TrEMBL record:
It is a multi-pass membrane protein. Keywords: Cell inner membrane, Cell membrane, Membrane, Transmembrane, Transmembrane helix, Transport. GO terms for cellular component: plasma membrane. The lineage of its organism: Bacteria, Pseudomonadati, Pseudomonadota, Gammaproteobacteria, Enterobacterales. It comes from Citrobacter braakii. Its main location: membrane. It catalyses: (S)-malate(in) + succinate(out) = (S)-malate(out) + succinate(in); fumarate(in) + succinate(out) = fumarate(out) + succinate(in); L-aspartate(in) + succinate(out) = L-aspartate(out) + succinate(in). The chain crosses the membrane at residues 27-44, 51-70, 90-113, 134-160, 172-192, 234-254, 266-283, 295-317, 337-361, 414-434. GO terms for molecular function: C4-dicarboxylate transmembrane transporter activity. It is found in: Cell inner membrane. It comes from the Bacteria. This is C4-dicarboxylate transporter.
Amino acid sequence: MDALFFIQLFIVLACIGIGGRYGGMGLGAGGGLGVAILVLGFGLKPSAPSITAMLIIICVIGAVSVLQAAGGLDYLVRVAEKLLRKKPQAITFVAPILTSIFTLFCGTTYVAFSLYPVVAEVAAEAKVRPERALSATVIAASVAVAASPMSAATAGMLAILHEYAGISLGQILTIALPSFFMAAIVTSFSVYKRGKELEDDPEFQRRVAAGEYEFMHTEQKKEFVASAGAKKGVVIFAIGVVLVLILGSFTELLPSWDGKRLSTPMVIQMVMLTAALFIMIVSKVPSSTLNSGSVFRAGLMGVVAILGVSWMTATFFDAYQPELIKVFGGIVNDAPMLFGVVVFLFSLVIMSPAATVAAIMPLGVTLGIPAPFLIAIFACTCGDFIIPGANQIGCVAFDRTGTTKIGRFVVNHSYIRPGFVMVISQVIFAYLIAQVVL
């Protein structure tokens, strides 16, 4: 590889790093700049962005946005809150699993983020150190997108692996789901006795003595009454998810033409758009609210990010495909876990599992890494916990007891231990399961 390769690699990394500072839209714009430089400046042939993945994301985000407009997501938050309050002493184990289930169902951490304040208060009321429950919950909910049939990250993996090795959605989930739940339990155990008990914590004692902390009284908690439309919307969306799982797992049920069966990505698009329409009609969702929710805005920025990043990285990797295979092919085949480390490190910069999948997983395909192993390292796309983001920082504020912290060196925060435990254990479990089922 000559100097030109490293110059162009630096440009790719610089565009990701600079764009990533401005969120999803910035990533997409940075990717667009990178493509322009590579193509117009260096004469590289432009590759195609991940259109299939983006179409799936658009359809899923559309359905979830309609569900949010119908009040369905708020209804799910209240259901989860009631369940959390039933077992307050077990909050360190219950909260990560419960919030993750809602993330798995919706494909977004919106519901989980709405539950973080509840987790903090329930833990404090039960005299459980909130740091334990919050740190495990935030990590589990964020990594859950790498096991959700509805997430943008899974959509990207499906699009790549379906074309590469004919992998179905059911095969991905057969590995991702059980490994995720086992890793979540291991993560909860890793923080179960972390730190001093709440009543012995010096910071908590100081806040109580200074009058900075008071337990919430029952009358302070507002009662939420879900509308009939919200409940119907959740049911319709759930039916759509079940249909996606069935048709994505049993592809023999799908029609075929000239010996070629209807692809799973197209099935997801059809089902999600259909579900969105039925939610609009049955739940009587006002058209003015459909594109104003947080899910729609975040999803749109995610699509832009994947467009720019996948387009730029595909252009770069395709241009140097023979050289990459020659130099790294043997190394990766001898020690494939090194590729997992590469994916994890890239996720630190890209700060988005879906964008990481779009940017790096095609390189794994280029290097000939087996599909089962690529599924096993799926969780490595969730390394964005190293540098505290909105969820981590928000939970520091939600924890009024002061036990959840961001350290003076930034990276020495409450989420480091559960983050590494979650990702590493899930990769190990997924690898073992993949050896059996694929």
